[in-house]
Specification:
about 375 residues, seven-stranded parallel sheet, 12 helices
């Protein structure tokens, strides 16, 4: 299996943003030096969750210049928030700069506050996302001599006469990575021989203590579609190589007890940040157009920990991950900076990187 780092820290005030940017850069440097395969970033706006994720493509370009051997991924880009032209242009630029080492997670978004900021009706997010992805494919395929691509999709308007510049580096375009939760998303990934994100829960319950049950269900459906699509064994292997299971918080220590104690300290700070943001979430959901239909459990509950956390000694973590390797998961995405990014949080994150690299990753790397 591959191991990748998910940069997912929080800043609690504007004057903390600069320290977060530089702290995450140093953390990324450690991950690159310790043999991790990729750096992933989310796509978020207007709050303290990864302030630099307001344009993750820009941050990824900066990091790609520093670590040209690494892959870069997005977990995930909220497609309704991006004009399809800018979406395609950014991906093509980064596809060129990374020589194709790019994995673009795509989804319809989860946060009403962000939709409001970009003029998207939360109820329409799924439909706008689907149409934006279809428009993106037309834009990627367009040549100079083709008719104009007309864009009329919610807040996104336009008419593209010539072509998208620069052209993609990858054949067709960089790999997209849908979340294999909805059948349509899983099928999009399978039919294109793209990797997919494999969830560990089934809505409306975003949590639980039996994550493998859900992972096996979604992976099995995606794998069957991949086989049915008639791809070559090489294409299927490339797709599975990056098929990803994500942990929002990964924390390792020398013993299980130490790991649990330190993890709970991290989670208390994380939950405090979530509750601080709740007031703004409530404002965003003040009308029917922006009501969410699911709820995430409190991070201090066993339901949240069971779904989103991987913790313990290196030996415990290896035993936990073996069934995922046997199932066929290709990439474990590790949130190693979850919560407010203090100096102590960075120290604990670096501790996790070191133990993963020295003790866990060798147990899953092919000879």
């Amino acid at each position: 299996m591959r191991f990748s780092v998910f940069l997912n820290a929080r800043s609690m005030a504007p004057d903390e943003d600069r320290a977060l940017i530089h702290g995450l850069t140093r953390h990324a440097e450690r991950a690159a030096a310790l043999g991790f395969d990729a750096l992933f970033m989310p796509d978020h706006h207007f709050n303290g969750y990864m302030p630099i994720a307001s344009d993750s493509y820009m941050f990824a370009s900066y990091l790609a210049a520093k670590f040209p051997h690494m892959h870069f991924g997005f977990s995930v880009t909220s497609v309704p928030l991006h004009h399809p032209v800018r979406f395609v242009e950014r991906i093509n630029i980064l596809d060129q700069l990374t020589d194709g080492k790019l994995l673009v997670g795509v989804g319809s978004g989860t946060t009403p506050e962000e939709m409001i900021g970009f003029g998207v009706d939360y109820r329409d997010a799924g439909a706008i996302s689907e149409k934006n992805l279809a428009l993106a494919e037309r834009l990627w395929a367009k040549t100079m001599d083709d008719p104009a691509v007309e864009i009329d999709n919610g807040p996104h308007q336009g008419r593209v006469l010539q072509r998208i510049a620069p052209a993609a580096y990858s054949e067709g375009h960089a790999r997209l990575m849908p979340v294999a939760m909805k059948e349509a998303s899983a099928r999009r990934a399978a039919e294109n021989a793209w990797p997919a994100f494999i969830p560990a829960f089934t809505p409306p319950q975003i949590g639980g203590t039996e994550p493998m049950k859900h992972v096996a269900k979604y992976f099995g459906a995606y794998r069957a579609m991949l086989d049915e699509a008639g791809h070559s064994p090489e294409k299927i292997a490339r797709a599975l190589d990056w098929t990803t299971h994500t942990y929002q918080l990964v924390h390792l220590a020398d013993s299980d007890e130490q790991a649990r104690d330190e993890m709970m300290t991290i989670l208390r700070a994380y939950q405090n940040a979530i509750e601080r943001e709740a007031e703004f979430n409530a404002r965003a959901e003040s009308n029917e157009a922006n009501k969410k239909t699911d709820r995430t459990p409190n991070a201090l509950t066993e339901d949240w920990i069971g779904t989103w956390c991987l913790y313990g000694s290196p030996e415990t973590v290896i035993e936990h991950l073996k069934p995922y390797e046997e199932l066929g998961i290709g990439n474990i995405l590790c949130g190693t900076t979850t919560g407010p990014l203090t100096d102590e949080r960075l120290r604990l994150g670096d501790q996790t990187l070191r133990l993963l690299s020295e003790k866990v990753m060798p147990a899953f790397k092919k000879a």
